[in-house]
Amino acid sequence: MRFPVKFLFGAVFVVALSVGLSGCRSSKEITRKVASADVKKLESFLHQSTPYRTLDSKVEFKFNPKQGVGASMKGNIRMFKDSCILISIQPFAGFEAVKCLIVRDSIVLVSRLHKLYAVEKLSQFAFKDYVNISAIQDILTNRIFVPGDQNPNERKIARFDRFRQKETEGYRWAENSYILDFVVNKDNQYATLRAYRPEWDQQVFVNYSLFSAENEVDFPHMMAITTEGFKVNYNLQITFMKPQFNTVTDFRFDIPSSYKKVTTTELIKRFQNLI
User: Fold this and answer.
1) Based on the structure, what is the number of domains in the chain?
2) Would you say residue 223 lies in a domain?
3) Cα separation of 80 and 51, whole Å?
4) Sign of the C-alpha dihedral, residues 241, 244, 245, 251?
5) Which domain holds residue 41?
6) How would you classify the pairing of strands 179-184 and 203-214?
7) Long-range contacts for 151-156 (Cβ within 8 Å, ≥24 apart)?
8) What pTM was computed for the model?
9) pLDDT by residue (tens digit) across 126-143?
10) Is 275 a member of any domain?
11) pLDDT digit string (tens) for 37-81?
């Protein structure tokens, strides 16, 4: 089994970018432009309507490749809206093996096992116009997003379509190269993100469940990122355990001076060679 660090962060970006994903449209599918009432509802789901500034939660990661052996480990996710995300992975009885800092312009990955660290600038990504910290936070906290725009105005929001297919309905953001479907469940909760490209036979799902009322919104305590149609498919499940909102949270991120800087590719290979 390969250590899931690469997938843990890569999956989030794949979904955020919605590049290289696809699905088929049904002839029974009905779409229309959103009405004024839909715009108001969408606004309550969007990034700017997030009712908290900070999130601090212990989490459990479960990684299950559809071919091979899975893994389960504890960790922690901390967020400050529009500013940073801290992710800690603790596979061995509370020992922090890996930590990651995502800020507006870069990603820092630190391995305590190897005493190494790597830094990636977001501007180096091929789809830098769509990679931003707000979209990653939205995926992790059950928010609908407009790619590349963390504060869309009402005119931009009106570009969404309302779609319905059998018992499924929700909001669609469609570009020439990709489509994002944000599916709403029977309880009127945003429950599924489906990202795909019409001409390809691959797709990514983010499913949200175990909702509870938190800070005037329904917050899902479980999310599952699933890929379909790839040579190797994955399922990454993240469970939030007793999340806390708007609390005093420690966002310090220190790197010991003795740690050596390497490339992200080299650091990931170290983990892949471990297991």
Assistant:
1) 1
2) yes
3) 12
4) negative
5) 5-10+18-269
6) unpaired
7) 151/47, 151/48, 152/46, 154/39, 154/43
8) 0.83
9) 566 666 788 889 999 999
10) no
11) 888 888 889 988 888 999 999 999 998 766 666 678 899 999 999
Contact 33, 158 (CB under 8 A): yes
Which of 34, 49, 25, 15 lies closest to 160 in space, CA to CA?
A: 34
CB 146 within 8 A of CB 117: no
Length of the chain (residues): 275
Q: Are 170 and 34 in contact (CB under 8 A)?
A: no
Give me the residue label for tokens 């389960």.
72
Calculate the dihedral angle through the C-alpha atoms of 148, 146, 180, 217, rounding to the nearest 10 degrees: 130
Instruction: Specify whether the CB–CB gap between 100 and 108 falls below 8 A.
Output: yes
Residue 274 included in any domain: no
**In this structure, is residue 46 part of a structural domain?**
yes
CATH of the domain at 233: 2.50.20.10
State how far the Cα of 139 lies from the Cα of 152, in Å rounded to an integer: 17
DSSP letters of 124-191?
GSTTTTT--HHHHHHHHTT-B-BTTBSS--HHHHTTPEEEEETTEEEEEEE-SS-EEEEEE-TTS-EE
CA-closest candidate to residue 108, choices 74, 84, 132, 129: 84
